[in-house]
Amino acid sequence: MIILGSRHVKYFNAPSDLDRVVIRVSTDVHRPRPLRSREAFLITGNDVPDGFSWYLALPGVRSFVDSIKKPIVFIPDEFNYLNDGDVVRLAPKRGELQTLYRRSSFHNSFLLTERCNNYCLMCSQPPRNVDDEWLVDEILEAITLIDIETREIGFTGGEPTLLEGRFIELVQACKSYLPSTALHVLTNGRRFSDLSFSQALGDVKHHDLMLGIPIYSDIAHLHDYVVQADGAFDETIRGILNLKKYNVKVELRIVLHKLTVDRLPEIAEFIVRNLLFVDHVALMGLEIMGFTRANLDKLWVDPYEYRSQLREAALVLDRARMRVSIYNTPLCLMETEAWRFARRSISDWKQQYVTECESCSVRNECSGFFVSSGYRRSNYIRPIINQTLG
Question: Which residues of 24-62 are buried (b: 16+ CB within 10 A; e: fewer)?
Fold first, then answer.
């Protein structure tokens, strides 16, 4: 997913037929000249160095740009977060600007494709059968501009592995240009049922790659129903086995909703018996986006109502010495015995706290809520007073 959606902006001195260009933002007036050709200088005052390919101007500094002969993008105040090292897509032909990467954020992800071979009932990014391979070329450009000190980036879809060899190319590019950056890929895992494809990914030998793969039931037909694809469970399990054969790290992801929570302890037992070798298990609260809104009555259950199943599942996994985390679930909706598994997991750009959180003593350790949680919220949200996570 892209960090922020496209916004209409005003271009000046820019080629009107230019479809798009990926460029890094700079605020350094002393930037070495050879680096300026792939950068856009963000004007924040009177000092406007020459030699940059593009210039970005917020409303308050527009009076300083009259003498600039290079392309200028007049951007609204909503882009005042832009800073040195960020990466943006400029689209003069459509009069748009889009943020692709924020250097200061810990939650940078790239949408590789909108196509998918699943049709999950709660998909937050509904698939579309479109030719969007141009995204790969754009991301390859962006990777070369990302700060080498970035802790982690993510790849999402759609289903990234439908890109076949170009997916492998992207992973290889991350290894080459970002040698200390972790890469987290969200995939349904089905494509890895092909042993040769798993081997191709393993042969890249990325230093810190994790694939997040969903398992929604310990019963095949229930998993297949959630993802709306016959045979998906069997392909996913074979894919996980193949990936581990080639030493690729795997995270199992279980989205918590009405169709999965009743059997959470049984799913945990299935994982312990059959997939003990995976590297992490994430129990994930529901985000009310995309298909989830259309299927909300079928999927919604108050997290407070399945708190005992959630605690038991986490403890089953923990007793087997597996790494387990609970994502996207506020602490006040969990049993205290499960708090030690909770993570502040919601991306900064779509996280919020509600009025009840203001006096909560564990707010800083709590995931908070998705911005989309306003569509349906728990009846049991309350501040936790004079307690800590310990």
Answer: bbbbeeebeeeebebbbbbbbeeebeeebebbbbbeebe
